[in-house]
Design a protein that fits this description.
Order of helices and strands of chain A: HHHHEEHHHHHHH
Distance between the termini of chain A: 39 Å
Protein name (chain A): Branched-chain amino acid ABC transporter permease
Number of helices of chain A: 11
CATH superfamily of the largest domain in chain B: Response regulator
InterPro entries (chain A): ABC_transp_permease (IPR001851), BCAA_transport_permease (IPR052157)
Largest sheet of chain A: 2 strands, antiparallel
Strand order of the largest sheet of chain A: 1-2
Strand content of chain A: under 5%
Subcellular location (chain A): Cell membrane
Number of domains of chain B: 2
Number of strands of chain B: 14
CATH topology of chain A: ABC transporter involved in vitamin B12 uptake, BtuC
Distance between the termini of chain B: 74 Å
Shape of chain B: globular
Helix content of chain A: over 70%
Organism (chain A): Streptomyces radicis
Membrane topology (chain A): Multi-pass membrane protein
Number of helices of chain B: 14
CATH architecture of the largest domain in chain B: 3-Layer(aba) Sandwich
Order of helices and strands of chain B: HHEHEHEHEEHEHEHEHEHEHHHEEEEH
Oligomer: heterodimer
Shape of chain A: globular
Radius of gyration of chain A: 19 Å
Number of domains of chain A: 1
Chain lengths: 307, 395
């Protein structure tokens, strides 16, 4: 493997990893505030993919878009993904989890509800949009390729990388520097004390879901541009991103980012060395090894109540 | 409605409720249809097992329409003193649903023969069940060679297998100038693996260097695979898999700058491929044991009737499935009053039926006796029909 090969594979890994990282944030935020493994988050991601397709289909993109048009289409797709992802996450919390919280339901009930909601949502999507893959409408001249440090990067890859990293920076800012962020961190650390201090827990929880949903939705749109959009598309990236959140230390936002990027890069190198059939073998061996030595994940101790 | 349910509905947003109600009613309606059976008496059913939902549904619908058309025409013709009904056994093209799909067909005593299973993976699982039930399973599309080598009692293959298709791919590539290195990529389904094995051994037999890779159909990223292909510098690429995988893969290949010959098999030979991948699949060759119904003279009239009925031209295996359904109907008619599952199977196994697309006959293992393969190429956003590979390779 030459140096330029390594650079190529690293870029591919970072592209995939930034998507995993963005999805993983959704898992980790919700886990932080509710100690809930929200397995329906993979369907929020799927909804984002459809949101992008719907938004772009509605405006009927031009066949030969100009640079400005391309940029507009991409923004519109991102917006469509974010809106539908955010809406589904918001609805999910309201309809599925809030009633359970009101009744102080046991942890297991939340988990089963999450799995049930996931089944419901992806089958609903299958009914509504058809059980076959949909192409992402063409937004830009697909084959145009940038050269970065000797490796060629396609528009799609660059888009995913830039959008993914921007979202990571934004969410980090939101969590660490804003009022909502301090609310989220307070609820994650100790919900009772937080509510005594005047934090509206319901509001914080709901907004946490929406924040994760916006991220997951955009990730779904970006993933769709790289592959295609389908009602079952959430499953594998969802499971992998959940693993990424655990790898980084579930409940910890920076951990989720680190975990996502790590898994993406490990997958990419595994595929390069042994072929695509070994993708998850490499990734999950790393997961198990890390958890053997650091059961709380790479950055798992920073936030109060960890797994 | 209990208090807790009311609570749930209360928080559900109105538009979700509006969606949920038709879905719920639809589900009830389906259940109602499912329980309507057992009227029997002068009506026989022909089942179809294939993907009627799921990722490769386009392939399944092509065949379903062909079968349905044959049944409708038979019923309307008035030539038969029995009614034929259609029975759908949806296996989603997946091994996991193959047992259930086969069992629903077996459990309906009016089902006299099955067209299918459509895909090789489910066929491997369903065929033994049909064997135990004595129910003939005539597949017009499952091309995995090993299917006829396992002693399935009632399985008949009405299509040349992948040995013929792999050989045709190899013959075609060897006939092209400057093809010395070929990469063969399987999607790791039984179909993809089988076709890859044959193509690889035929190419190696012809003195071509072959690299073999596997890219599972559910991979989350084709970028790595595209890189591997371009870096290897091969002259041609065989993708043994279905259109749903080839579409994003071809896009990544085009981005990565792959300029060799691309060739795939009948699993990718569908207009959906072009719909999903756009101009990225331009120039790709697609082999198929199926003819283009609209192009071949023998089936042109069928193509018109098909289009009139379904508003879409016949797709991959539509005409072949139509033929198989007609063969079954004629076989049932030929048996007179002695119609039983076993009798239908025995008559089919020994039949020689002149269909629109080809002559259908089977050897003692249920293998098809005809091995012609046809070539298509994506040109100008259309699947163009090039004709029999035998002639292309020779010319």
């Amino acid at each position: 493997m030459s140096l330029s090969d390594i650079w190529d594979v690293l870029v591919l890994g970072l592209v995939l990893g930034s998507l995993y990282a963005v999805i993983a944030i959704g898992y980790t935020l919700v886990y932080g505030v509710l100690q809930l493994l929200n397995f329906a988050h993979s369907e929020v991601f799927m909804a984002g993919g459809f949101g992008g397709v719907i938004a772009l289909t509605l405006i009927e993109p031009a066949v030969d878009p100009s640079g400005l048009q391309s940029a507009l289409y991409v923004l519109l797709g991102i917006l469509g993904g974010a809106i539908l992802g955010g809406l589904v996450a918001f609805g999910l919390e309201k309809a599925a989890y809030r009633p359970l919280r009101r009744r102080n339901a046991p942890r297991l009930v939340f988990l089963i509800t999450a799995i049930g909601a996931s089944f419901f949502l992806y089958n609903l999507a299958g009914k509504m949009f058809g059980r076959y893959p949909l192409p992402m409408p063409t937004m830009y001249e697909n084959r145009q390729v940038f050269e970065i440090f000797g490796t060629s990067v396609s528009v799609t890859q660059l888009l995913i990388l830039v959008a993914g990293l921007l979202m990571l920076v934004t969410v980090d800012f939101v969590v660490n520097r804003t009022k909502l962020g301090s609310g989220i961190r307070a609820v994650a650390q100790d919900p009772e004390v937080a509510s005594l201090m005047g934090v509206d827990i319901d509001k914080v929880v709901s907004r946490t879901f929406v924040l994760g949903g916006l991220m997951g939705g955009v990730a779904g749109f970006l993933f769709g541009t790289n592959l295609q959009v389908e009602y079952t598309m959430g499953f594998l990236p969802g499971i992998t991103a959940f693993a990424a959140a655990v790898l980084g230390g579930i409940g910890n936002v920076r951990g989720a980012m680190l975990g996502g990027l790590t898994l993406g890069v490990v997958e990419s190198f595994t595929v390069e060395l042994w072929g695509d059939g070994w993708r998850y073998v490499g990734a999950f061996v790393v997961l198990v090894l890390v958890l053997m030595f650091r059961p709380t994940g790479i950055l798992g101790e920073r936030v109060g109540r960890t797994a | 409605m209990t208090a807790s349910l009311q609570g749930v509905f209360h928080v559900l947003n109105k538009s979700i409720v509006r969606l949920a109600i038709p879905v719920a009613i639809g589900a009830l309606a389906l259940t109602a249809c499912g329980s309507d059976e057992g009227d029997g008496g002068g009506a026989y059913k022909i089942a179809y097992q294939g993907p009627l939902s799921g990722t490769n549904v386009a392939l399944g619908e092509n065949m379903q329409n062909g079968i349905q058309l044959a049944i409708d025409e038979a019923n309307e013709s008035g030539e038969y003193d029995f009614e034929i009904e259609y029975f759908a056994a949806d296996d989603r093209g997946a091994e996991g649903d193959a047992t259930t799909a086969a069992q629903t067909a077996i459990d309906d005593a009016d089902v006299m023969a099955v067209v299918g299973p459509a895909f090789s993976g489910p066929a491997n699982i369903s065929a033994p069940l049909y064997g135990q039930a004595g129910l003939a399973a005539v597949s017009s599309s499952a091309t995995l060679p090993a299917l006829t080598e396992q002693g399935f009692q009632t399985f008949l293959r009405a299509v040349p297998n992948d040995n013929a298709q792999g050989l045709a791919m190899s013959d075609f590539l060897v006939g092209q100038d400057g093809v010395e290195n070929v990469m063969v990529i399987s999607d790791s389904t039984p179909y993809g693996e089988g076709l890859s094995d044959v193509a690889q051994s035929e190419l190696e037999g012809a003195g071509v260097t072959v690299e073999r890779e596997t890219v599972p159909a559910d991979t989350v990223d084709y970028g790595s695979a595209a890189r591997t292909v371009v870096d290897s510098g091969v002259d041609a690429l065989i993708y043994a898999g279905y259109y749903e995988g080839l579409a994003p893969f071809a896009t990544r290949l085009a981005e990565a700058g792959f300029d060799g010959i691309g060739i795939s098999g009948d699993g990718s030979n569908d207009d959906e491929l072009i719909n999903l991948a756009g101009d990225s699949v331009e120039g790709w060759y697609l082999t198929c044991p199926c003819t283009d119904a609209a192009e071949e003279q023998a089936t042109a009239e069928f193509a018109e009737r098909y289009e009139a009925a379904y508003d879409t031209p016949p797709g991959t295996y539509s005409a072949e499935s139509y033929d198989v359904a007609n063969m079954i109907i004629e076989t049932i008619a030929g048996l007179g009053d002695d119609v039983s599952r076993q009798a239908v199977y025995e008559a089919l196994a020994g039949a020689e039926y002149e269909g629109l697309t080809k002559t259908f006959a089977f050897d003692e293992n249920g293998e098809f006796t005809n091995t012609a393969i046809f070539m298509y190429q994506v040109e100008g956003g259309q699947r163009g029909y090039l004709g029999p590979v035998e002639e292309l390779a020779a010319g």
